[in-house]
Amino acid sequence: xxxxxxxxxxxxxxxxxxxxxxxxxxxxxxxxxxxxxxxxxxxxxxxxxxxxxxxxxxxxxxxxxxxxxxxxxxxxxxxxxxxxxxxxxxxxxxxxxxxxxxxxxxxxxxxxxxxxxxxxxxxxxxxxxxxxxxxxxxxxxxxxxxxxxxxxxxxxxxxxxxxxxxxxxxxxxxxxxxxxxxxxxxxxxxxxxxxxxxxxxxxxxxxxxxxxxxxxxxxxxxxxxxxxxxxxxxxxxxxxxxxxxxxxxxxxxxxxxxxxxxxxxxxxxxxxxxxxxxxxxxxxxxxxxxxxxxxxxxxxxxxxxxxxxxxxxxxxxxxxxxxxxxxxxxxxxxxxxxxxxxxxxxxxxxxxxxxxxxxxxxxxxxxxxxxxxxxxxxxxxxxxxxxxxxxxxxxxxxxxxxxxxxxxxxxxxxxxxxxxxxxxxxxxxxxxxxxxxxxxxxxxxxxxxxxxxxxxxxxxxxxxxxxxxxxxxxxxxxx
Length: 479
Known about the structure:
Layout: E1 3-5, E2 11-12, H1 15-19, E3 30-32, H2 40-47, H3 51-60, H4 70-80, E4 91-95, E5 98-102, H5 112-130, E6 134-139, H6 143-152, E7 158-165, H7 171-178, E8 185-190, H8 194-206, H9 208-213, E9 216-218, H10 224-241, E10 249-254, H11 259-270, E11 274-280, H12 285-292, E12 294-296, H13 317-324, H14 329-342, E13 344-346, H15 349-356, E14 359-363, H16 366-380, H17 386-398, E15 408-412, H18 420-425, H19 434-440, E16 447-449, H20 455-469
Helix pairs in contact: 3-4, 3-10, 4-5, 5-6, 5-10, 6-7, 8-20, 10-11, 11-13, 16-17
C-alpha cells in the first residue's frame, strides 16, 4: 500500500510516515494511491464479525504487515478498545423506520474516540520502538480535542497541543479539554472560529523543515488513519441493517470536516453499495457545493447548537474531489489552488455529476434541530445530541416518503449527555450527567490566544519550548 498527497506532488514512503503526517508539504492530504476492492465473498465473511474483529480486517488492508505484524495489530486494537464502556463497543437503535448508529460509547462520549484510541496506540508503538518523541497539533471545534487528549494523555512519547475557539464549544467539551493536568497536555482557547485557529496549525505543517525538526504530527481527520478507522463504522452498520450483502443502504451523516463522508465514499469505491447524505447546519458550504458545484466560503461562521459542525472550510473536501475524479491529482491541485486564491472553486460538471451519484446533501436550521430533538423524545423516548438531530431531521422529513424504503442509518456522533444546554433549549428535562458533575469539580488549566496577537508565533513558541525539554520520555505516576 502506497500513499500520495491529494495534490499529487508528495509521496509517503510508509504507513508510519502517513501516521505521523499532518498536511503534506504541497498542502494536500495523504490518501492511498489505490483503493482495495473487496469482493462479495469477503463481504459475506465480514458480515458475521464483531466490531473489533472487523476493525482488524479493514485496517490490515492499509497497514503493511512489515510495519505492524498481524499479531501486533491484533494486540494494539484489543488494547485500544479495552476501556470502552459498552460491551459491543457501539450499538444500533431503531427509531421509527430508520436506524441510529450510536458512536458514543468511548471515554469522551463522541465518535472521535473510536478512531483516536487506535491512532494513539499506533503512534506509541512506533515511537517506543525508535525512542522518539512527537508533538501532536490539534485544532478542534469541540469533540476532537477531548478525544485526542484522552488517547495520548499518558503517553511517554507524545506531547499534545490543542486549540479550541473560546465560547463556541459547550461547557462539557471545554471542561473535558481544560481539566486535564497531565504534563504532556497543552491547551489554548482562541478568540474567533475553528477556521481561524486552523491557520497557524497549517502554517506549522506547511513549513516542512520546521515540522520535521520538531517532529510535528496531527490527529485531526487530516490524518489518514482517522479516515481509515471510520471506514469500519460504515462497514459495520451496513452489515447490521442490510437484508442481503449487495443491497443499498443510505447513510445520513452529520457533517463537519467531512471525515465520515470521505470514509463512506471510500467504502463505496471498495465495493459496498452505499448512498451518502451530508447533513449540515446553517454553515452550509458542503450543501452548496453538492447542490451547485461551487465550493465557496461564506462571510461568517454561524454559531449553532451543533458546534462541532460550525466549520467554514471542511478540509476533507479535497479528498472527496480526488475520489470523485478517479484520482486525478492534477485536477485536485488546480481546484485547490483556485480555492486558496479566491476562497471559492467551481467543480467541472463531469466531476460534480460523479460526486452526486453517491453524495447528496441537506441543510438543517437551529430551530429544526431543537424541534427534532423534542419530537424524537416525545414520540420515541429517544434522546438525541444536536449533531445527531441534524441527521435525524433529514430522515424525519423523509420518513413518509419512498426515499426511506432504502434502509437508512443516521450517524449518532455524540451522546446527548455532552450537550445539556441544547437539550434544555429543546424543552427536554435532563438531570446533570455524572460526567459533567465530575468535571466541574476539577481544576482547569488553559492558556489564551486573543484577537490581534500573533497566534503563529505563540504556537511556535510553545512547540519550541516542548522540543527543548523533550530529550527523553516522560514519566507518569501510577495514579
